[in-house]
Amino acid sequence: MITVTNLRKTYRQGERTITALDDVTLSVPKGSIHGIVGHSGAGKSTLVRCLTLLDRPSSGSVVIDGRDLTRVKDSEVRTARRRIGMVFQHANLMDSRTASQNVAHPLELVKTPKGEIARKVGELLSLVGLAEFADAYPSQLSGGQKQRVGIARALASDPDVLLCDEPTSALDPATTEDILTLIRNLTHTLNLTVLVITHEMHVVKRICDSVSLLERGRIIEHGPLQDVVGNRTGSLGKSLMPLPSTAVNQSLPELDLLLVGRSASAPVLSELTRRFDASVNVIAGTVETLAGSRFGRLRVEVDSPRPISEITAYLEDAGVHVEVAA
Ligand SMILES: Nc1ncnc2c1ncn2[C@@H]1O[C@H](COP(=O)(O)OP(=O)(O)O)[C@@H](O)[C@H]1O
Ligand SMILES: [Mg+2]
């Protein structure tokens, strides 16, 4: 479990004070994946550096599985850091070492006995699906395979936490899917706590249980994926489930519908046509499963003798979020 409380980090730049993190509070339960999204300059890298103790926060605390990292003595920083595995955008492997030698590296640094290293490295390479590539050099591996080696190396010290900084930003779509599936599976098998820094909403959709939006050092929106998507006032919901652009006809009333969970699985629209003697025409829409729940976003055109206010009231009652399109 990761708990960040009132974290602040300021930098001095000449006369100016730059607040890179401003009162950041978040918590990630064990066995789950939390996404941090934000534009360039939002403070994502600063957060990663504070979590890995590469940088000391100005105030606030970072607690990982009960241990307050901000209170760790300088002499214990290295040991504390071993509890956190890091996965980067580029695997940053050593070219002169084979896959297994790369994975072995963090274990050699702490003088793990040779036999144990061999056993552990074999286990890790199997875990990431690269058992046959143990003796391959990075130049002989694809981008996705290199990232798998990077993940195996991050897991070598049996960390409780995995910090992934843009883990798929350098990969093609198919490889991105593979790596995301691997991260998701490892989170479950090893009961890891995972933080994924990304600018890609796709990554959040595919693997995150919860998400925070960082802007100018502050978390301006956060929550479980289901809640964030259902929140009509926030910007994350619109980015996660955008309404496809439409050519507006304007002769009939149009409604934007957000169907969440129960309402996304129920025949709400066919019931509407019966009750209101309406014809409903879907102009645009998507239905997706996010964090195990179904979501639908639809724009519909409604032709009914009954007032539109009655129809929206019925839909809201059925658990659908409705906005009358302008
Ligand atoms: N070492 C530093 N000295 C001064 N300012 C910094 C330093 N590191 C980051 N910043 C500033 O802090 C803010 C957040 O930066 P950063 O964490 O790198 O954002 P992101 O990773 O989201 O792009 C930016 O305004 C950046 O200029
Ligand atoms: Mg950055």
Automatic annotation (TrEMBL):
A GO molecular-function descriptor: ATP binding
Lineage: superkingdom: Bacteria
Translocase in keyword set: yes
Pfam families: ABC_tran (PF00005), NIL (PF09383)
The UniProt record lists the keyword Membrane: yes
Domain ABC transporter, chain residue ranges per copy: 2-241
Membrane-spanning residues: none
Keywords attached to this entry: Amino-acid transport, ATP-binding, Cell membrane, Membrane, Nucleotide-binding, Translocase, Transport
InterPro entries: AAA+_ATPase (IPR003593), ABC_transporter-like_ATP-bd (IPR003439), ABC_transporter-like_CS (IPR017871), ACT-like_dom_sf (IPR045865), MetN_ABC (IPR041701), MetN_ABC_transporter-like (IPR050086), NIL_domain (IPR018449), P-loop_NTPase (IPR027417)
Name of the protein in its database record: Methionine ABC transporter ATP-binding protein MetN
